[in-house]
Write the structure tokens for this entry.
Amino acid sequence: MTKVNAYKMDGLGNDFIIIDRREVQINLSKEKIIELGDRTNVGFDQIIFIEKKINNYFPITIFNSDGGEISACGNGSRCVAYLLSEKVNSKLIKIKTNNRLLDAEVVSESSVKLNMGKPIFDIEKIPLSKEIKDNRVDLTIDGKSFKNGFCLNVGNPHIIFFVKDCFAYDLKNIGPKIENYSIFPQRINVTLAQVENKRLIKVNVWERGAGLTKACGTAACATAVAALKNKLTSNKVEIKFNEGVLDIEIDNSQNIFMTGPVSKVKTLQIDI
């Protein structure tokens, strides 16, 4: 086996392995990513590769723990921005995913603000396999009805169900069934959202390709947009996960800004 230097970080418990491919050329197979992502091994929700800088931005490549490549990871992007800010000695970092250019700012010793861009509501770009009215989907799972699931894309696809108690459901069971429902050709991230007041929403998230997660940045963004669209909250809202909150603000141009804590950078070696 070969040992490779890597970094371990998390945002509200949503954890990542980050490998800087500017420092080492490495490619991992899907099978190896799954092996490393297992909680009995290194364990992570996502593994992120930092690529060589292009112009003034840093491209990143992201894989879920199931080995599938994804287009967006909000908390992961904030962690990468924090790591890069230490390496290049700048509080302003530009990150390029495969479909968005993200502006990040380290706003305190352990907090990063990220401009996630604008939400997408177009059915074909979410994507959904058939036309629906007002971006709302009704599903029946295990004989139970889930009404008015709001669908959108914030770099990846999401569906949000607003419920009275977001922890009253067995999301470990129903999450993968919704994720893989036939109407979602690229699968979907699933959020059960509990509106506490105009400024606070509790959430329970099943992440596509990663399962139950302690936190999910894009889910927080999607939930805030869906709540604003449904006139349930203001344009500034706290999204509460078990280990803390993400502050989401949607400006007049519909840009989504996410601010929240990141962990310290831990250096480790992984066997490949």
The CA atoms of residues 32 and 272 lie 8 Å apart. The mean pLDDT is 96.
